[in-house]
Amino acid sequence: MRAPIGDFEDVRPAPDCLDLLAGPVAAALRAWRGAVPAGEILYVDSDPEIADTAVFCETYGQDLLDKSANCVIAAGKRAGETMYAACMALSTTRVDVNGAVRRHLGARKASFAPRDAAVGETGMEYGGITPIGLPEGWPILVDAAVADAGYLVIGSGSRRGKLLVPGKALAALPGAVVLEGLAG
Question: Looking at the domain covering 11-173, what would its CATH class be?
Answer without folding.
Answer: alpha beta
